[in-house]
């Protein structure tokens, strides 16, 4: 596992949904975009990477954390939300440095380990 340099480049909030809660997730997404300076990722209607179900990502600067996260704590509408920093340690960012709102989902951490190992090896010749 890589060691973090202690520098948080940004934060990600992953808002999870299913077909029944997609409309609720859309309302949360719209409210985040209206209230905060965020970069919204695309809708992922099926599991991708380490994420076990449909989700979208919300990227935000460390300066937004103190306003955005408390708002999300009160307004996540029962959806599972993973909040984590972005450092140089993908595995640590998604595990022991992560916060959960609502249900804590089981991430595919092995996917992240393999992704990190691949990127550290560099391109094949």
Structural account:
The protein has 125 residues and is an alpha+beta fold. It has a single domain (10-119), classed as DOPA-like domains (Alpha-Beta Plaits, 2-Layer Sandwich), CATH 3.30.70. It has four helices and five strands, in the order βαββαβαβα.
Distance between the termini: 25 Å
* Count of extended strands: 5
Instruction: State the low-pLDDT regions, or none.
Output: none
User: Please, what is the average pLDDT?
Assistant: 92
Largest sheet: 5 strands, antiparallel
Strand content: 15-25%
Principal-axis shape equals globular
CATH level 1 name: Alpha Beta
Any descriptors?
single chain, about 120 residues, alpha+beta, Alpha-Beta Plaits, 5-stranded antiparallel β-sheet, 4 helices, 5 strands, about 20% strand, globular
Please specify the SSE layout and strand pairing.
Layout lengths: L9 E7 L5 H14 L3 E2 L14 E6 L4 H11 L5 E6 L3 H5 L4 E3 L7 H13 L4
Antiparallel strand pairs: 1-3, 1-4, 2-3, 4-5
Short description:
With 125 residues, the chain is of the alpha+beta class. The protein contains four helices and five strands, in the order βαββαβαβα.
């Amino acid at each position: 596992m890589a060691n973090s340099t202690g520098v948080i480049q940004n934060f990600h909030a992953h808002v999870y949904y299913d077909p029944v809660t997609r409309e609720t997730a859309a309302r949360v997404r719209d409210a985040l975009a209206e209230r905060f300076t965020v970069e919204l990722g695309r809708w992922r209607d099926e599991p991708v990477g380490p994420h076990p179900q449909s989700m979208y990502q919300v990227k935000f600067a460390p300066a937004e954390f103190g306003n955005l996260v408390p708002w999300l704590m009160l307004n996540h509408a029962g959806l599972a939300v993973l909040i984590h920093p972005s450092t140089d340690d993908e595995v640590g960012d998604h595990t022991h440095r992560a916060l959960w709102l609502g249900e804590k989902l089981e991430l595919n951490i092995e996917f992240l380990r393999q992704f990190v190992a691949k990127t550290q090896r560099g391109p094949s010749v």
